[in-house]
Fold this protein.
Amino acid sequence: MKQNFTVRQGALDGVEAFLSVAQHRSFRRAAAELGVTPSAISQAVRALEARVGAALFIRTTRSVGLTEAGERFLSRAKPAFEELVAAGEVARGLGQRPAGLLRLSVPRAVVPILLEPLIASFSKAYPEVEVEIAASEELVDIAAEGFDAGIRMGQFIAADMVAVPLTPPFRLVVVGSPAYFAGRHRPLRTDDLRQHACLRWRRSNGALALWSFNDNGHPIEIAVSGPFIANDFPTMLGAAVEGIGLAQVPEPIAAEGLRTKKLVQVLKPFAPVIPGVFLYYPSRRQILPKLRAFIDHVKSSRKQ
């Protein structure tokens, strides 16, 4: 059976005073170490003894010694209190300088294009920060999953997040390989996609994404069909390079294939512009120095 558990208010009161008296065997020297009066130390120890239910010290006019209960309390309380102090120092250090583990949730496609150069320069500038990248297409709850921040395309970021642009806006482009177009007419209008094999992207919620276009300033979405479904852009782009069908992907992802002529862009007049890629994090969370340093590094890199 599950039991209710609460930490008693003031449970640690007097422990530091007790440890100091036990170390110095003197209420006066303990008071000097802690910067309080001897009477304040005596009151703190008496209150602790009252809560424990046993005398912890043997007091005489000439000396202070530990009772058996005091010895046992000291053996358990001293290492525990030292751990608490150490934990506070670690937390204080993370709150004062860029250090610790920085966890980022990112789509796989942005790692080689965007993150690898950033991480290399950031790690060199901030050697005390460890960067962990969880590459996944799934839209995770970054706060619940223990991530410091996430990276996603702007249209997928919740309104209550703080978003920092990593790229300018870019187009969604439709591409296919020269091998695919051999013996086929290239689509000139969006309706022509009905005669083509279109590679589809399955979102993290299980739905198949529609293809988005801009028709003379009017946004339209089209349900396409084809022989291949993937849950990330790099896999879909690879299938397009192999000639399996047409793919609609962010332009930066297709840039190398277009440059090397492994891919050909079609339906250029209908390519929609989307906001770009953003770093995002919860607005209600206090920003630790490690994340603030990464945000500043991102901003400075964009200016170069």
